Amino acid sequence: MSDHACRTGARPRSLPLALATALLLAACANTPNPDTQIAVSRAALDDARSADAAEFAPLQLKAAVEKMDSAERALRAKEPELARRLAEQAEVDARLAAAMARSAKSQRAADALQEDIRVLRQEIERKAQ
């Protein structure tokens, strides 16, 4: 800036352009690459499958798979923003399916333990008599 501009408070004409460029770069930096999101979503789907979501959360797993398929179609159709959004939704559905499956398996194990405890108590009562 020139001395005159500093004394009068005038801004250089390139400042608005610099600010606009900085904002654009910041916005681009915050938008994840759809390929990266698709990879993350695939990993979430693999996790859901390994958690037996097909057995314990089939609807949520199906939703995740369908959204993942749609994301891949959108990516092939050169619609990266749609692909990223669908992949994000697929990831959320897959994580939900995995959590529901793990919860159901934990509940099943807890129920089995409760039954074992009930049988043991009956044995103790029977032997005490």
How would you describe this protein?
The chain is mainly α. The chain has 6 helices and no strands. It has helices at 3-8, 14-30, 34-50, 53-56, 58-76, 80-128. It is elongated. The N and C termini lie far apart (99 Å). The model has no long low-confidence stretch (mean pLDDT 86).
What would you call the structural class? mainly alpha
Q: Quick check: average pLDDT?
A: 86
Helix content: over 70%
H/E topology pattern: HHHHHH
Secondary structure: number of strands: 0
What best-fitting shape do the alpha-carbon axes yield?
elongated
Instruction: Report strand %.
Output: under 5%
Radius of gyration: 28 Å
Q: What can be said about the biggest beta sheet?
A: none
Alpha-carbon distance between the termini? 99 Å
Structure summarized in a few sentences:
This protein is an all-alpha fold and 129 residues long.
List the helices and strands and how they pair.
Blueprint: H1 3-8, H2 14-30, H3 34-50, H4 53-56, H5 58-76, H6 80-128
Helix pairs in contact: 3-5, 3-6, 5-6
